[in-house]
Amino acid sequence: MFRFLTLCTITAESTVWYLLQTLYRIVIKGFFLIKTRRFFITRLKFLGDVILTLPAVRLIRQKYPEAHITYLAARPFDELLAHHPDIDRVMGFNLSSIPRQLEVLMKLAAAPFDAALDLFGNPRTAMLCMLTGAKVRIGGDFRGRRLLYTHRINMDGKEVTAPAFHMHYLEPLGIKPQPVLPRLYVSDEEKERAARYLSDLGYTDKPIVGIHAGATWPAKMWRSDRFAELAKRLSKEHGVQVFFTAGPADLERVNRISEQASVSPSEPRVVGIRQLCALVQKFSLFISNDCGPMHIAPALSVPTLGIFGPGQPDIWFPYRTEDGHHIIHKHIECSRCGRDFCDDLRCMDAISVTHVFDRAVQVLRDTKKI
Question: Which of 248, 299, 334, 369 is the most exposed place for a label (fewest CB within 10 A)?
């Protein structure tokens, strides 16, 4: 009996001790680990690609609300991340300045990171992740640089939306993909400056439709004369104002379109990324080719029409129709070819002005702008 009672006492003490240890690991130790966890995330470029990583950042913040998150992007794409509540520190990487790059390298080597996520996957970013000293380094299963990661992600050719692709990189952190969309943020001061800018150019309180007629690749550009006709019809038939946005390489083309349409209060101008975000936030609708600026508007909750030709809208336009976002695309036998240059452009020619105009009017009516 005595041995039995002694055994019971030892068992009870062991059970209590085990529970206390478990409680310590889960509640006390776990609390401090989560509270001090530091994440390094990088997607160097480009504009739209950086925006499409933001759902993954949101999921990290949800899982680890007390974490410190650093995001490294190439200049000027780092400007997109200003005021973002999920990011504690934005680091700009100057690709044209070796001294500035060395400054970043020194800062990374000195910072204590627990996990590093390479959402770009080139040799440079793989080395940057290695330099952080993070014990957990997550990247793509690419030849050579895969050796610099502790966890390698291989999608095996599976096609998913761009945000979902990046979310799969979170699986080693115990985070599963969720239906989260990108968000950008504009400060009140930036909004006020944008309002003054538009007023100075002659824009009024009437609805403004933004049009981005440029793109990095020629095959992704809808015909110039069709953009001009679209702008003219929106202005004359529904009284909306048109604002043409343009990048430095687009300006000559967009100026010709603006002159042909003769509806804009002023000629197109190139503005910086922060000002572009603030201006887009003032639009009632944004119509764009398949390019980086197209992604700014949905991330600011501005209804968007994305015009697709050779691209893959099911991957690069993850936005919801219930939020006013629509894919403009005509399927033909060579659709989704992915070409950057093409002498045919049947996919683009299949998209009529009436098709885009009718969808634009529908969105403006649904949102009670006209």
Answer: 248
